[in-house]
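TA notes, week 10

Several of you asked for a full example with nothing omitted. So below is the full record: structure tokens for the whole chain, then the designed sequence directly under it. When grading your own attempts, check the secondary structure regions first.
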């Protein structure tokens, strides 16, 4: 099974939605809370090319935020990525 990391902030609706989608898939993931952590947010922007959360990484590769995760799910590609 793929290694999934999701970077989130408290009170973020998109983060909640992304977490819900991953939970519905019944996959293990690591949630990393970036609330108030400027160092972690700078690293995340460099690693993902995005300054927003959530940011999801599957097997170390950034896949984007909730919108991208939802589109991967709708297209069936998310299941492929998760089965690696």
């Amino acid at each position: 099974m793929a290694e999934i990391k999701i970077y989130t902030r408290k009170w973020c609706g998109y983060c909640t939605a992304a977490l819900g989608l991953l939970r519905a898939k019944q996959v293990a993931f690591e949630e990393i809370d970036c609330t108030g952590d400027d160092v972690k947010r700078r690293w995340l922007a460099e690693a993902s090319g995005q300054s927003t959360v959530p940011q999801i990484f599957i097997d170390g590769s950034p896949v984007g935020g909730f919108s991208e995760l939802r589109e991967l799910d709708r297209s069936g590609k998310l299941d492929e990525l998760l089965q690696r």
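The mean pLDDT is 96. Use that as a sanity check on your answer.
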